[in-house]
């Protein structure tokens, strides 16, 4: 990999392909989700080791609520299990953790562990781990607009910067690189505002097969791109 100066500060990942990974192996979809949850820990560690400062993982979208109830329950239980298991390690490694999304829709037990994790790690600053649960980019923008309206701001004075300051990740630089696994090539309502100028990278590996090699390839591809942000 090229020098650390060109490592993306913030990476977003759409973790896709758990169900297909399991189906291709004749396994229940639940096994794919369980394997995918195990990959999260390795990905966080690898990203930090490679010099990335912030990682936002798309774990569960607003649209995912329409999936079968047992699969939804499993996904949310896995998120809760991950947090309970990894919280102390995250804190020890000086990682700040938070969840973005409509947390009020999540099970109370999951909300409780999220609150505990966010409060325990709030002052950590070596690495920033954001998990998107019950999240959509459109929801994020609508919430920002509602906050601005509630402040009584004159509509004529609303700016792009003001909207950005009211989004879920207002204190984190926009993602430099957005990765989607499993070969699908769309961003599926993820960080719509923040990803306006993100570099997009689509890999064929299913999320359960995503590893250090795959992340390194994505970063190397990013390093060879020339980011113009609309300029020449």
TrEMBL record:
Protein role: Catalyzes the condensation of isopentenyl diphosphate (IPP) with allylic pyrophosphates generating different type of terpenoids.
Family: Belongs to the UPP synthase family.
Oligomer status and interactors: Homodimer.
InterPro entries assigned: UPP_synth-like, UPP_synth-like_CS, UPP_synth-like_sf
Protein's organism: Candidatus Bodocaedibacter vickermanii
Cofactor dependence: Mg(2+)
Cofactor binding annotation: Binds 2 magnesium ions per subunit.
Protein name as catalogued: Isoprenyl transferase
Keywords from the UniProt entry: Magnesium, Metal-binding, Transferase
GO BP field: polyprenol biosynthetic process
Binding site for substrate: 17-21, 29, 33, 61-63, 65, 67, 180, 186-188
Pfam family, one: Prenyltransf
Recorded superkingdom: Bacteria
EC number: 2.5.1.-
Positions bound to Mg(2+): 16, 199
GO molecular function: ditrans,polycis-polyprenyl diphosphate synthase [(2E,6E)-farnesyl diphosphate specific] activity; magnesium ion binding
Enzyme class: transferase
Active site per UniProt: 16, 64 (proton acceptor)
């Amino acid at each position: 990999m090229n020098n650390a100066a060109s490592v993306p500060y913030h990476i977003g990942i759409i973790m896709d392909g758990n169900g297909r990974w399991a189906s291709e192996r004749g396994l229940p979809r639940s096994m794919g989700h369980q394997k995918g949850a195990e990959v999260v820990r390795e990905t966080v560690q690898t990203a930090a080791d490679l010099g990335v400062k912030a990682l936002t993982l798309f774990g569960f979208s607003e649209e995912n609520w329409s999936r079968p109830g047992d699969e939804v329950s499993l996904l949310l239980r896995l998120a809760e299990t991950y947090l309970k298991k990894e919280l102390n390690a995250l804190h020890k490694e000086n990682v700040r953790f938070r969840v973005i999304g409509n947390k009020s829709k999540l099970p109370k037990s999951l909300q409780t562990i999220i609150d505990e994790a966010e409060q325990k790690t709030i002052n950590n600053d070596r690495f920033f781990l954001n998990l998107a649960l019950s999240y959509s980019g459109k929801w994020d923008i609508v919430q920002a607009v509602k906050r601005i309206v509630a402040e009584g701001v004159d509509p004529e004075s609303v700016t792009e910067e003001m909207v950005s300051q009211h989004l879920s990740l207002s204190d984190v630089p926009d993602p430099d690189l957005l990765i989607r696994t499993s070969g699908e090539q769309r961003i599926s309502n993820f960080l719509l505002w923040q990803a306006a100028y993100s570099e997009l990278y689509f890999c064929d590996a299913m999320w359960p097969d995503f590893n250090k090699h795959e992340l390194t390839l994505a970063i190397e591809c990013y390093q060879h791109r020339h980011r113009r942000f609309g300029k020449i």
